[in-house]
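Researcher: Please translate sequence to structure tokens.
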Amino acid sequence: MLFRFILLCCILLLPIFTQIVLAASIRLGDLLLGGTVDKFQAVMVINKNDSYTNTSTACEHVTINDFNFTVGINRGRVTPFIVRINAAANDFTILAIGETRYSGVDYFSTGDFSVDFSATSTKITLEAGDTITSGFLDADANGNSAGSVIPHISGDSLFLTGSANDSGSGDLSQGIGHAPTFGTQVFVSGLSRDYSYNITADIKMITPDTNTTVPEPSTLAIFALGIISLASRRFKK
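Model: Translation complete:
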């Protein structure tokens, strides 16, 4: 009798388990490989190559975790961000802006560093078909800088804008939901570089019928085991 009850519980829970989608971790950007630092005073980099596309038919939640970067020259400041890549060429929408990291506060020498993207939890929602990618500004969100920080080597095709001085820097001052402001010089082609940085994130699917996050397998497993345990006690009596 107990076996039949457990089997019935498994059958009833099967539709729920078949909807489970494990959270996936992604990396937007390149490995930390060092290289050469730009001569420009302020550079905005948007890595169009190392992107992520929601290929499902449902929405997805993205939780942004860490900003990992190499300091090639210990100076200035660096601000990470996430953008959506739109259909038009070099058309981006800011989705998240991380904390600005400062020399002498967040990094004290050259080398590799890993920090939180933001002091608070940062989450964004991707519609089906949305493509996002990462970027950084060798300045604060308003374009104020003291020289480029993150080095690069040859590699991916990317979007880069900037200036030899602060007055022509790109910036993120328009804020989330708007396009970033480009600098006085824009390089839309001909640059193949892997900048020594990346941003990590977790992806979780959202069920299309309820628009709520799919439960983790561990949560469902605990629920199922609880039902089975209660049933077992009942039949032992």
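Researcher: Any highlights?
Model: The domain at 28-209 is CATH 2.60.120 (Jelly Rolls).
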